[in-house]
Structure formats: structure tokens, C-alpha cells
Amino acid sequence: MALTLGVVATSPAASLAQGVVLQPAPPTQAAPQLPVIDPDATLVEELVVVARDRGPAWWTVSNGTSTVYVLGAPSLAPKRTPWDLITLQRRLNGASQVILPFQEVKVQLAGSVGAAWNLMRLRTGKPFEEGLDPAGRARFAAAREKIGQPAGRYKTNNALAAGLLLAGDYRDHSNLTNADTAKVVRAYAQMAKVPVVQKSYDIGPLMGAILRTPKPAARACLDAVLEQVEAGPGVTVAAAKAWAEGDTPGALDNERTYERCINMVPGAQTFDARTKADQVAAIEKALKAPGHAIAVVHLRPLLAQGGVLDQLRAKGYEVKTPGEV
């Protein structure tokens, strides 16, 4: 788990796989309830509708003169999930800008020493499973073997660190990603010569927060991740198919164990609120320009109570659902 400095990752799983402990997308089938406040647990039901048009669901935000078309992206999907691009291509025509998910994270040089120190504190000389009881050791070993990882991959005595790393490895092994939608939109925006807006965050200050996570919460995370590895990616595959067909309720029925575990880390919920506020501000700024723009936001942060659309409605903007547009 070597530290990589100055690296920019497009997802928490990618960064943790490179050795960077991250911050900060519906629960797994049969997964235990995690003892944490989940900021995206409660949805604004009137916004959760099936799209009228073909392809993934779009919402619209308007101030009466300008419009931002918002594409809800899946929190997790198989890589290269096919979806209908006709609406995207049509809306790129004449768009003033494209706002991509505010999900990139990095460790800035100024925080590198502290980040390295916190990572060292999470490491041990022995594999994590050696500190477990016999039943727990066998279960953890079976899970990592299922995704092709050696015991030495998880040299930590911190259950949350082990769980997050295992979750990232499971997603990589299962070819699951949260970044493909944004990559596709970026590529088409560049071909259409539409400016792209995307913000990244320095998570160096949060590197040590994982150490302060209560042990019961850390173990609950690990148990939930083990259940997800054992269950496999079937729930995510079905949710991705629903998303591509504009079935928003079905798309939301996705596993998000990693995201719920992340919310246990002290400071993660503050970070989550910051990213939502920044996305709201970016959409508001786009509405000040004439014409229209495009934004891509992950479905749960988009549709949750206190989420991006909920905040924009509270500010007085008109929000229309995919059933109306």
C-alpha cells in the first residue's frame, strides 16, 4: 500500500487502491445497517420518476431565462455500460458549458508529509486477517481470495481501512466504476468544443480521520463489505441496466457499501455537504449565462433530501423531472 503523492484519482476506490486513504453513492441486499448518518439515505420522492424519453433520466433547472439540463449518473456501474447518447448530443449543441461530478480528490504537496505519516499509522507488519478470530479469519480470507488478492495486500489492524481497501479491490475485480458516465460526457463535450467544469479537492487533512472512527462502526463497515463481496455484482448490473433505460427507481436500487462506510470517517459528512454546495453553486453560476448548460451529478446526491436539486428548489429555481421534459 505505497503512498503516491500528487496523484489525482477519479474515485475513492481508485485512490485507496493506490494507497491514499480517502474521503468522499441503496444498500446491499441483506447488508447490515451501518451505525452512521447517511446524508443520501432519504430521497425527495417526487423527483424520483421514470424518464419519459428514451435513455438515462435528465432533470432541468431553470431561472426563467436560462436552463441547466442535469443528467443523473449511476453511483456505480459496470465499465462501458452502454446508454443512449442522442439526448446528450442534442443538448451539447449550443451549450455554454458542461459541469462534471465534483468527485476528483488529490493530496497536495503541502499536505504530503502529514498524509504519509497518517498512512504509516494505519499499516502493520502482519496481514489484517491474522488478528481476527478463526471464523472471521476464514471469512476474510475467502473474500479476498474470491477477488484474487493475497493476505499481504491488507497489512493493517484497522477494520475500516481493511474494509475500504477490500471494497475498492472488489469493485476493480468486478469491473465496476463510478466514473464512466463523466468520461463519456467529457469526451463528447470536447468533440463539440464545449468548455468543461470539474472541481477537485485536497483530502490530505482527512488522511488521519480514519483512525478516529469508532471500532464498532469500523467493524460494521467490514462486515457489510464482506457481504457485498460474497453477494457479487448482480445488484449493480441490474441497477445499471435500469439507469440506461431511464428507470430512476431501479437505478437507485444499487449497492453503495463503500459510500456508506466512508460516511463513518470523521469529517466525511462535512466534506459531503461541501461538495453538494459546490455543485449547487456551479449550476447557479451556469444559470447566469444565456442559453443552456449541462451538468452531471450522481443520482443519490442529486435526489436526496438536502441534495443538489433540493437545495436549488429551496433557492427558488424551477426544477422539472424526467417525466415532464
Would you give an account of this structure?
By secondary structure, the chain is α/β, with parallel strands linked by helices. It has one domain. Helix content is 42%, strand content 12%.
Overall number of structural domains: 1
Q: Classify the beta-strand content into a percent band.
A: 5-15%
Which secondary-structure class do the elements indicate?
alpha/beta
Strand order of the largest sheet: 8-5-10-3-2-11
Major β-sheet, in short?
Answer: 6 strands, mixed
Question: How large is the radius of gyration?
Answer: 20 Å
Shape: elongated
* Helix fraction bin: 40-55%
Low-confidence stretches: 1-32, 106-111
Overall mean pLDDT stands at 85
Brief descriptors of the model:
six-stranded mixed sheet, three-stranded mixed sheet, single chain
Helix-strand layout with pairing:
Layout: E1 8-9, H1 12-17, E2 58-62, E3 66-73, E4 77-78, H2 86-92, E5 98-99, E6 104-106, H3 112-122, H4 134-146, H5 159-173, E7 176-177, H6 180-191, E8 196-197, E9 200-202, H7 215-231, H8 234-244, H9 248-252, H10 257-262, H11 268-287, E10 291-298, H12 299-303, H13 308-314, E11 318-320
Parallel strand pairs: 3-10, 5-8, 5-10, 6-9
Antiparallel strand pairs: 1-6, 2-3, 2-11, 4-7
